[in-house]
Amino acid sequence: MPASARELNLAGASVEVFADAATASRNAADRIASTIREASVTRGKAVLGLATGSTPIAIYARLVALHRSGELSFAQVRSYNLDEYYPIAPTDPNSYRAYMQKHLFDHVDIAPNHAHVLDGTVPEAFAASHAAEFDRWIEADGGLDLQLLGIGRNGHIGFNEPSDLSTEEAKALPTRLVSLHPVTTSDAAKDFGGEANVIPRALTVGIRPILAARSIVILALGANKAEAVAAALQGPITARVPASLLQTVPGKVAWLIDEAAAKQLV
Ligand code: F6R
Q: 3-7, 120-124, 139-143: which range is least confident on average?
């Protein structure tokens, strides 16, 4: 694994600060590759929670390169993506299903029925039961070996947006249909050709299944994440900053961030 520039221990979580985004992404990819290899051998399968967005693109490129060079197989991998817009067709280029096919699934040996993304086409009356079923699939697979996360500028993880819930209520949130926060729709405007075109709702894996993962790798890159990173790591545990709920499971969380995203840590 590439050496990290410096390591911090904040709120019991491991925080590695890298000189640049490429090195942080490579470290994240190598952790995922190690988990895939180890769990494939010890349990006969590796169960991953995967993220989309701009942050993990370099991670998937590295995983595809490892696969192409014969160093990594996804034959034993089961994956569960964090979120999907609702409603959306899987063929829509803005769908997270399309993103995953483009950046990872189309290029590796993962079976189609092992690569799960929440379905943006389910009838609305069945969205809740589809979401609950997704949680049951994860549990039936023995739980997540590793959950990969990004962080929103508002501190969201998945599309678990800031709320006024109590900490206990927020920690219990299951996979479900949600409305996106204004900061999230504003950040998605570039993908949809304007904020007015952003699909305002999404299915998201809940806080409860995220915190239940056996290990969590959260990547934050760039100065626009610095405030959310500092609030999540050094602020109070609160549903106002969903990533701060990771402080409740410190031993299994690895933050991989670049110097720009670390700027507001004190
Ligand atoms: C994506 C997801 C989101 C993103 C977050 C950061 O599946 O769950 O929480 O990780 O919005 O997005 P980027 O990486 O585009 O800055």
A: 3-7
